[in-house]
Design goal:
globular, 2 domains, 3-stranded parallel beta sheet, 467 residues, TIM Barrel
Amino acid sequence: MKAFLDKDFLLNTDTAIELYENAGVDLPIFDFHCHLSPQEVWENKPYESITQLWLGGDHYKWRAMRMQGIGEQYITGDGSDWEKFAAWAETMPHLIGNPLYHWAHMELKMFFGIEKTLSPLTAREIYDECNEKLSRQEFRPRSFMEKSNVTFIGTTDDPVSELEFHQLLEKDESFHITIAPTFRPDGALFLERPDFNSWIRRLEQVTNSKVSSMEGLISALKHRVDYFHENGGRGSDHDIQKMVYIATTEKEADSILKKRLNGEGLSTEELDAYRSFLMKELGKMYAQKQWVMQLHMGAMRNNNSKMKELVGTDSGFDSVGEANIAEGLSGFLDALDQEDSLPRTVLFNLNPKDNPILAGMAGNFCEEGISGKVQFGSGWWFNDHIDGMEKQMKELANVGLLSHFIGMLTDSRSFLSYARHDYFRRILCNILGDWTEQGLMPDDKGLREQMVKNIGYYNAENYFTRR
C-alpha cells in the first residue's frame, strides 16, 4: 500500500515513475491563464496569516465549506482568520476524493514543508507553523512564484485597466518572471449588465473618445488592444456562457447598441446578435496582433440570487451549464476563417459532455506552419481533477494530436496553486507510462520524455510567444 502523497503519488507504473523523474519534475511553469493580482506581485507584501493567502479569494474552498454547513461568517464574513482556518480544517476530512484534498496537502508540503494531514486535530499546529513562516522574506508572493520555477503568467484584465503594475514589474530588474496582461472584454460584450453604460463611460475616459455607436466602440477597443500589446499583452480571454453565433451586420449591431445606451430593453436574439458581431470584430483584432484567443464556455453563473446579493459574483455559486455549443462555435470560427482572420484559439468547456465536440472542432481549422492552431484546452474548473484531466487528454488523443497539446493552467487567485501543474504532470506521466506498459505506444524513452516536456511547458511557451 502506498503512503498518502508519497514521492510516487499518482504514478502507478515503473515507466510512469521514471518518466516523471526524468522529464516532469523539474520543468518550468508557463501559466498562461490565471487571476492573480499584478499589484500583489509588485507590492510583494507579507501575508498576515495562512487564511489570507489560502482562503482570501478561493471560491473553490468557499463552495466546499458551504456544503459542509459552515456559516458565511466563517467564509466571506467577519469571522477571525483563525476561525475561518478552523472552519476550513473542519471541512478537510470530508473532501477525500475531491482534488481540493490533494491540492491543499500538496501546497502545505511543497511550500511549507508540512506533511501532516489537515484536520480539526492538527489545525492549530499547522496554522501557527504556516503563520510563523509567512513572516519570513522567502514566503512572499514573488518567492512562491520563483520557488515554483514560473517563467510566465497571464493575468486577466479589464480593457479599461491602466496596467500600471504590469508596467512597474516590467521595469523591475530584480524580478525576472514575465507578467503579461490578458484582454478580457466582458464589459463590452455583456450589454445586459446593469453597469454596461458606466463601463462605456470608463472606456471613453481611457481612450479620450466618444462611444455612441458601434464604429466608436470598435475604435475604442482597438485602441485598448494596441495599448495591451504595447504592454506585453499577447492574448485575450472570454466568458462564453452560451456559444451562439448569428451573422450580423454592423448596422444591425449598431442599432442594438444604441438601444441599450438609450436605456431600452433588448431581446435574447438581439443580445446574441450584438455579441456575435462584436466577438467577430474582436477576433479580427487578435488575429492582426497575432494574439491567442481563449474561449471559456459553459459556465452557468450566479445560480443563487440571494447569495449574489449578499456576497457578490464569483463567490462560489456558479456551476456547469448544458447549452449546446457545436453549431455556434463552428459558425463563429468559420466566419473568422473565411476572412483569413482566425487567431490561434484555445477552446475550454465546463461540461464534459462537450469534450468530443471541442476535440473534433479543433481539427477543422488548421494553418500551414502552425502545429495545433486551434487547441482543446485542459480540463477546466469542474474538470480539473484526475478523471477530468485523464478524460480530456484521452479524448484529445483519440481524435487529434496529443503531442501538440499546450497543457495545464492554474486559473487561480492563489500564489500556491502552482501545485496543480505538478498534479497535471503526474497524471500525464501516468497515462503515457500506462500506454507504454500496455504496448499501446512504443517503448521509446526519448519520445515519451519529449512529449512530457512539450505538453508540460514548451508547447504553451511556443504557442503564446509565436510571431
